[in-house]
Amino acid sequence: MKTSHAIGMFLDSRRSQLVSPTTIRAYTWALEKMENKFPELPESPSDIQRLFIDNSGLSPASHLSLWRRLRTFWMWAEEEGIAPNIMSRIPAPRVREKLPRTLTSHEVRRLLASTDNERDYAILAVLLDTGMRLGELESMTRGSLGPDYLRITGKTGDRRVPVLPSVMELVEKQGDDRGIWIGSRGRLTAWGLQLIVRRCMKTAGFKPPKIGPHMLRHTFGLNYILKGGDPFSLKRIMGHQDIATTMIYVNMSTELVAQQHRKFSPMADIVAAD
């Protein structure tokens, strides 16, 4: 079968499942690499291994992303009876996991104090209270508002995200029939929302790398675990496909606890004095 034909069928199946445009672009990026090398569907694991060798110049994170997208495609191909899953015996590339940066409680307060614009404050509050992605924030409409949750469309499909009553009040004051987040030219895009968040962070005095909306998502994830939340409910809230992604926040909290222990243990001063 022509690789392009199989890819088209796969992407159509993802779209029918209401996968987000961002995820479709990620699949397209990976699968075009395979199509460029193999006009006909490759038939052996060695073919895929050569593809990875050809793309060895990618960053470790991009290399892992390529592996994940190809794995999903080949699992689908086998389920549909199109071709055997030649990715099944190709292990994931090893990537040294970098712990994401987060904001402290003091920095969160500084950030919220950085704007007196009600819309911008509400945007920051929603991101910090739910950990949602920018694309999910962009997709919100009046129909997204439940009594104590938000219905959002994300990378892993639709889900309900709990929200504090105080944050819901902020959201209910925003928007119109066009959407929740409205700017001078109409409904705000993900890019427009990102510019607002970055502007607020700069006003608060943050400098790279502590600039960017995804840091608010990481801040939510870490605080959820630190305050006693479990990783399984966090996985559902954040819309992770794999619990391994959620466990990053557990690892972060473990490391943070260890740091606090080294700092505040009654033995710390004694050992240092010795």
> Would you tell me which CATH topology of the largest domain applies?
hpI Integrase, Chain A
**Which architecture of the largest domain does the CATH hierarchy give at level 2?**
Orthogonal Bundle
Determine the oligomeric state from the structure: single chain
Query: What is the beta-strand fraction?
Result: 5-15%
- Total strand segments: 4
- Rounded radius of gyration (Å): 22 Å
> How many domain regions?
2
Q: What is the CATH class designation of the largest domain?
A: Mainly Alpha
Poorly predicted residue ranges: none
Shape: globular
Which H/E pattern describes the elements? HHHHHHHEEHEEHHHHH
The CATH H-level superfamily of the largest domain is: Intergrase catalytic core
The major beta sheet can be summarized as: 2 strands, antiparallel
Give a structural overview.
The structure is a single chain. By secondary structure, this protein is mainly alpha-helical. It folds into 2 domains: 3-79; 105-260, Intergrase catalytic core (hpI Integrase, Chain A), CATH 1.10.443. 58% of the residues lie in helices and 6% in strands. It is built from 13 helices and 4 strands. It has helices at residues 3-16, 21-37, 45-54, 60-79, 105-112, 118-130, 134-138, 165-172, 190-203, 214-226, 231-238, 243-264, 268-273; strands at residues 149-154, 157-162, 182-183, 186-187. The strands form 2 sheets. The protein has a two-stranded antiparallel ribbon. Helix 10 (214-226) packs across helix 12 (243-264). The chain is globular and about 55 Å long. It starts with a helix and ends with a helix.
